[in-house]
Each structure stands twice: as C-alpha cells, then as structure tokens.
Amino acid sequence: MTGPAETPVLAAGCVLWRMRERVEIALVHRPKYDDWSLPKGKLKRGESPRAGAVREVLEETGMRCVLGAVLPTARYVAEGRAKEVHYWAAEALGGSFEPSREVDRLLWLPPAEARARLSHDRDRPLVDAFLAALG
After folding, report:
1. Distance CA 110, CA 116 (A)
2. Pseudo-torsion of CA 116, 121, 123, 127, nearest 10°?
3. 10 Å Cβ neighbour count for 1?
4. Which pLDDT tens digit goes with each residue over 88-99?
C-alpha cells in the first residue's frame, strides 16, 4: 500500500503569463478531474524540474515559454501518494492551444479572476507569489 511517507511523486509546473493590456494567467481545464489548474505534470525519469516545467507547459497549453522567478513548491497528497510540485513563473513566448484528452480548455484571465477560478485552494498562493515576484 502506498502512502504519504513514501518517496513523493515529483512534478513541475508554471504560472504561465502573458502581457496584453494587462497581465493574464493561463489556466487549464482537465476533464478527468473537471477542474481548473495551473499547467503542471509528473517528471519523466531523469528529467530536471526546470525541463519538466517547460515540457508540461508546452504539452498542456501549446505555448513555448521562458522560466522566470522560482515560486513556492507545493506539497500535498493526491490519490494516496505524496506529491511535490516545483513551480516557476513563466512568460509565454507564443504557440497555439490544441485541445486534448488531458486538457480540453485553456483560459487566459487577469490574476484576480484566475485566482478565483482555480479549483484547488493550494494553487491560489502560487498566483500571489507570482504577483509578488512580478513586482
């Protein structure tokens, strides 16, 4: 039986942002969980958290990005396993979203709206940390 005391599942993600008339943050909708979250995912064997964060952003949003400030690491239990997710602020450089089985919708929202739309309370402090890092 697995539990939180075992080695955590390692993952990485980003608060992906772009500047239009104002800052907008990307949220992804995952149909499997019917939730809105920040782009993130499990690391592949031997993959660094930085590389995993960039890969996950591309896979889930279709956006190329450049990593910026390091944001707090989220630690929680999901499906009975401890999970550790490393986060960065990441500026979107361009790309195009294609819906998939994993992520069927992408929204760009102002920070306050993104914070309110997030399904999990644990994600909201990441938006706050992003805004603090943005200055």
Report:
1. 10
2. 50
3. 4
4. 999 999 999 999
